[in-house]
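Q: Hi! New to this. If I give you a protein sequence and the SMILES for pyridoxal-5'-phosphate, can you show me the bound structure?
A: Yes, paste them in.
Q: Okay, here:
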Amino acid sequence: MRRLFGIFPMNEDKKKFPYVVWPPFTPLKPRPEALRVRSGNGVFLELADGRRLMDCISSWWVTLHGHCRPEIAQAIYHQAMSLEQVIYAGLTHEPAEELARRLLSLLPAGLTRLFYSDDGSTSVEVALKMAFQYWKNLGIKGRTRFLAFEGGYHGDTVGAMSVGQRSVFTRAFDELLFDVDFLPYPQTWADDFRVDEKEEKSLAALDRLLAGNPERYAALIIEPLVQGAGGMRMCRPRFLRSLSDHLKKFDIPVIYDEVMVGFGRTGDFFACQKAQTTPDILCLSKGITGGFMPLGVTVCTERIFNAFYDDDPYKTFYHGHSYTANPLGCAAGLASLDLLQKEKRRFMGMQAWHERGMALLKDHPRLACHRVCGTIAAVNFREGSDPGYLSDLGPMLRHRFLERGFLLRPLGNVLYILPPYCITEDQIISIYKCIQEVIKEIPEA
Ligand SMILES: Cc1ncc(COP(=O)(O)O)c(C=O)c1O
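A: Thanks. Here is the predicted structure of the protein with pyridoxal-5'-phosphate bound:
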């Protein structure tokens, strides 16, 4: 196993941590190990030792069309030769404006204004601040609390952490996080006969909170259709419609965090379209540049925007980032959108391939809760009920997959597949076959 996991250059003499790079989400002891990647091509990554890995998780859900798509690489190169970066205050540029126009034209008509930031967490942070200040700008007091969902993950900045599920990720910061009211997420799967009940329970919990003091809420945030890091937990589109109807009655804005599910992941361009609902605010990142550049956007309705459109400087949205609307990111975003539209059959058709693969795992006694939504598929290992990051089942499975040439990162006991859209049907089926093989090797608990 050690042979597989040679890491960044290391000095074996050093007793302590021998690397200068501090890796994300990684306990420093025992010594973390990582594979050195030399290049990427389509669905494959090539390692420094010559081995090839199939990237079945789109490298943390960002690589949309496959690694190193020349169309996007060239767009970045051409943009870099004319304008690489410029302060986005008092100055603007074509790629930022064009990308905003193109994105808005693909989103529901009610979403009309777009704010740039850097990544998923900042797109969420912007959404929360926008919703919070919206009420202040209207002169309405007391709308300071957020509604969110159990099992949610919205990023690692303080606001984004606050509206996410409290977990090992957030424990060190508990006193720093603001209080939020959490609702049960009505997760469902194939042949789930209790889904109506779960949806009713969630809406009843919402009703109870709203019966108390609905005028305390600034907004509700949800990962529509699929909660990602919480374990690829899926809900039905109709739940989102019921949720919107409930909140409309009390004039509570809805924020859709489509950071993971945007750009085709759910089989439609955006989850809000699949659910036929229009949120008041929508967050996008991850796939926005096809996985080439960090970029985030927060989109809102005219109603939200109008609350900031004022002569009073105190009503300004004082938020921004050094790399706001970075031209290289915007150029990558435009090239990625071209591919997404040209090749939409790929993400629209992937659900059928997943379903064929899932059929191989369907009757497996050690697996449960099979679920597919567009390009995302997941199933739970019955043993080890903990989908958390500290479960040792995840790393054990991960190592077995890597040995076979598949990059899969189970979330605790949840096995999921979220591949780039260039993957072929045979390649998808090979992932399911690999899962079948690996399960045989895992000793029963
Ligand atoms: C739904 C969702 N929101 C926000 C984030 C945070 O994005 P980033 O890691 O780019 O800050 C993530 C990351 O996984 C996510 O899945």
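A: Residues 71-341 form a domain with the Aspartate Aminotransferase; domain 2 fold (CATH 3.40.640.10). Let me know if you'd like me to explain how to read the tokens.
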